[in-house]
Amino acid sequence: MEKFIIEGGHKLEGEIEISGSKNASLPIIAASIMCEGKTVLYNVPDLKDIQTMIKILNFMGVNTKFENNTLEIDPSGIYQFTAPYEFVSTMRGSICLLGPLLAKYKKARFSMPGGCVIGPRPIDLHIKGLKKLGVQIENEEGYIVGKADVLKGNDIFLGGSFGSSVLATANVMSAAVLAEGETTIEYAACEPEIVDLAKFLKKAGAKIYGEGSHLLKIEGVKKLKGVEYKIIPDRIEGGTYILAGYITKSKIKINNIIPQHLFALFDKIEECGLKIIYKSNFVETIPNDKWKATEITTLPFPGFPTDLQAQMMGFLSLAEGISIITEKVFPERFIHVGELNRLGADITLDGSKAIIKGVKSLKGAKVMASDLRASAALVLAALTAEGTTEISRIYHLDRGYEKFEKKLNLLGAKIKRIREE
Question: Catalytic residue positions?
Fold first, then answer.
């Protein structure tokens, strides 16, 4: 395994480009197997999760070519309809292949994803929605086995205990595109990544209405065609670099970003007493030596994203006053608290709430990354900490951030990636 050695206390300066969205790419890659002919996707980030999805497609018999952030997908040779445990266990997002497989090929065998360190993430909504379309689903020795003679449109409610589900919406919407008749999905996820999937499907010939709202209407079509499509920028990566600018009290420019996807973050930055500049495709951080505490509740889009909760917690560790973060999407997503405290933060937990007492500074230490976004939070904290920080298990970062330390080093950070002994 590898680790980061980060020398803290350096100001950042300059410009960086945001990569394509991982969470938009995965469902669109999955949906491409429903298309007749070759699909070409641009702006696909070169990440471990993307490589894993490509391996699954290759295992199934799909022909792929991936270079320079361009992915070509030709599903004409597909002959396997199974996603084995060794792939699914490393990347939960692969479950978004379930709907497309059932829609186009009427069968699928998928390893059960299980839970993860940010808390249980059941797939009951996926199964519920697909059953409503006529899929028969059983659990056989840890595998979800689905089959259908014909998919038929239906009225489907996809609300869950913690709101709407992005991946369940992706699966059910994709399957409904090739179902007979009309489908209505109520309480659909309205995240930008779902909108991007809908735009891709519509370009391929789907009839979808209402993307970006909680009510989707889909008229089934007989087939989809292969297309060329460009993936949207990654809003979570963009938000992470924005917070990197503020936590290091630095002015940086973040290009290839859609500011409207991050208005909830901008609102909280302004509540902290800081200024932010943005235009149609870039954001500039306007730093200050001090910022105020605030209260945040994570919610599905357009609320504050749970995927920026850990990074925001690191930032608020240095705010003046007491901040409170309430996690309503994944209530157990606080494993990074202990590691931030090792760097000198003062954070306590009360159920699904984190209480953050601002401190004057953080100090370097040895810490361990536990998941993708927690890893990013530790990097941000280390950038501003006094002395040197070692972060182990950084393989989590490679799942969701393309060239993370290289981009930060271009801005003036001092980060070394070395192999752990």
Answer: 116
